[in-house]
């Protein structure tokens, strides 16, 4: 069997779709975190509908924001460890530039 790791890195780094999709080791954890954050956000919506105290709503919103930020950190670390490493190994600097742009948008 041939080693296609360089081919995978090249294809990934150049935005060419590959057959296995974009799955990483933390995908299940990210999906679980997103589901929890969505549940918390739904709770905030119900709190507003039910007329809960504004300070309680703000506390819950802070929890949602924190959950999303922490999910972003997991995705960022996974991206660095896999996507960016593969792209750099393939000599593709644009992956680093794309990551910098994404970090700028994420941290606004």
Keywords:
DNA binding; Metal_Tscrpt_repr_sf; mainly alpha; 4 helices; Metal-sensing transcriptional repressor
Question: Would you kindly provide a written description of the structure presented here, covering whatever features stand out?
Answer:
The chain is mainly alpha-helical and 108 residues long. Helices cover 75% and strands 0% of the residues. It has four helices and no strands. The protein has helices spanning 5-13, 27-49, 54-89, 94-106. Helix 1 (5-13) packs across helix 3 (54-89), helix 2 packs antiparallel against helix 3 (54-89) and helix 3 packs antiparallel against helix 4.
Number of strands: 0
Rounded Rg:
19 Å
Average pLDDT works out at 81
Structural class: mainly alpha
Q: Beta-sheet strand percentage? A: under 5%
Uncertain stretches: 1-20
Helical residues, percent: over 70%
Distance between the termini: 46 Å
Counting DSSP H or I runs of 4 or more residues, the number of helices is 4
Order of helices and strands: HHHH
Pfam families: Trns_repr_metal
GO molecular function, one term: DNA binding
InterPro entries: Metal_Tscrpt_repr, Metal_Tscrpt_repr_sf
Protein name: Metal-sensing transcriptional repressor
Write a concise synopsis of the structure shown.
The chain is mostly helical. 75% of the residues lie in helices and 0% in strands.
Helices and strands in order, then pairings?
Elements: H1 5-13, H2 27-49, H3 54-89, H4 94-106
Helix pairs in contact: 1-3, 2-3, 3-4
């Amino acid at each position: 069997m041939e080693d296609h790791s360089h081919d995978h890195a090249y294809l990934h780094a150049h935005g060419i779709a590959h057959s296995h999709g974009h799955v990483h080791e933390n995908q299940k954890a990210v999906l679980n975190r997103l589901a929890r954050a969505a549940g918390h956000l739904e709770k905030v919506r119900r709190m507003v509908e039910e007329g809960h105290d504004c300070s309680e709503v703000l506390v819950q919103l802070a929890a949602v924001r924190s959950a999303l930020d922490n999910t972003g950190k997991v995705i960022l670390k996974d991206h660095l460890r896999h996507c960016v490493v593969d792209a750099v190994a393939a000599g593709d600097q644009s992956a680093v530039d794309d990551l910098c742009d994404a970090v700028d948008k994420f941290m606004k």
